[in-house]
User: Fold this.
Amino acid sequence: MSRTIDKVMRVLDLFSLERPEWGVSEAAKALGFPKSTTSELMSDLADQRLLSRATKGKYRLGWRLFELSQTLLDTTEFRMEARRVMEELVGCWRETVHLAVLDGVQAVYVEKLQPTPAVKIWISRTGARLPAHCSGVGKVLLAHSKWEHIAALFEDQGMPTLTHNTITTLDALAEELERVRELGYAHDHEETLVGLCCVAAPVHGSGGEVIAAVSLSVPAYRFCPNEDNYTAAILDAARRISESAGPELQESPDYEMEVQGT
Amino acid sequence: MSRTIDKVMRVLDLFSLERPEWGVSEAAKALGFPKSTTSELMSDLADQRLLSRATKGKYRLGWRLFELSQTLLDTTEFRMEARRVMEELVGCWRETVHLAVLDGVQAVYVEKLQPTPAVKIWISRTGARLPAHCSGVGKVLLAHSKWEHIAALFEDQGMPTLTHNTITTLDALAEELERVRELGYAHDHEETLVGLCCVAAPVHGSGGEVIAAVSLSVPAYRFCPNEDNYTAAILDAARRISESAGPELQESPDYEMEVQGT
DNA sequence: AATCCTCGTTCGACGATACCGAACGTGCCG
DNA sequence: CGGCACGTTCGGTATCGTCGAACGAGGATT
Assistant:
């Protein structure tokens, strides 16, 4: 594996909500790199606009990341329809709704809609990444992936225990995923966070493969899957999102032009 | 400069709205790289989740880009308030409103709000990058940057001519930027696109420095800056966004303003 | 079913290039 | 004025990315 790319990612990963600005020396110390190497790295990254120079020798994340992310989002077909459906869900159930995709053995939250007034701020965040084995969306996504692949990754990275209900062994996970496949949806009974439950269902692409998952999150004390039919609602929502991706022949309208300086 | 980082960016830049998926051979041919090099490069990028493996050996942009972009956005303080103010602007004027930041000599559109029903799809797009010398937001941002710096960049990259009104010489640009500084706002008379005008104003950070620009775009046939007071509206909007970022006092005369050399 | 083509990946020796300690210039504080 | 911490520059060295060739897996055509 390329050592340079690895270092680049180590550097970019430094930048967080809590610490959005880094100087060269701070970064070098945090990463254990020599100061000169770090300086050249960060300077190169700034030249490529992956970093931007802030005041007083500090660096921030650069806007090219935003550009790249935006083309990623704009070429993710199901996102527009998903958002519409999710808004309906929130309006109807007054609970938090998530949309996530699988990335390795982690679920990346692509969209998160909360009712107003927001009941609470969960640990999830748009753009956040959580272990997939302990959330509704995560289990749905894992259930439709190659088992050998994800098993190997979990062996490597371990399975973090977030609550007393979190699945902690590969055997238990295999069993649970089998159940998820049979049912067609997944429940999360306080496996991510104590007090939080959810129902999640798979979103299918035009080829029938699972490309994302939607979920409805409900506080545990209010979670009655047998009385309320969250499950039917989320399954219907997932189906509707899938159908928008289904009619294969949607040709994207030609954009006028893309002007970029050279 | 690091050759590896350069190659990485060349690869990532391949992915666009028109062509969101690339195979190794296609990419190698497009970039002029050997197939093996490209394969290892893309494989490494996929390991780092900057790319993701799609079906049939194709690659797509990876979700780590989205994560990084999201932490960038979430640490961009003025964005929330900017969005609120922009929504008001759109509601009031029924025209398209832009928010942009400067990146080199290009303006990156951070946010774009259109009235419903949308009048037209402009060449701008959230996440897009346009030469700064030919747009309202761009000129505002350039006007408050170090002249030597941007002059050098323009010398390097040239000044693309988009319309018959586009500024094409450094001298004319210097003059225009001086006027923008004096007035406190910028007009764009069909300099980006024939038929499109706009008024743009600077957003100040807590330190008084210009961190972004907002603009109101109006079709040329409807653009009457002397009758309607777009200008007052956009200046007021920019001021309100600035205030949310800086409860600190911002001195109006910026005495360390740079004077243009050659 | 067999053949051919194209794809993505692997391999290993080579040579470009990223690496790092030391030195430099700068701005800040005492 | 002098000390300190910062970001940057420099050049020799060894690492690590590079690239042609070979490999194995699919698809399509015959």
Remarks:
- The two ends of chain B are 28 Å apart (CA to CA).
- Residues 3-4, 7, 33-37, 40-41, 56-57 of chain B lie near DNA strand D (CB under 10 Å from a C1').
- Chain B touches chain A through 61 residues (CB under 8 Å).
- The mean pLDDT of chain B is 87.
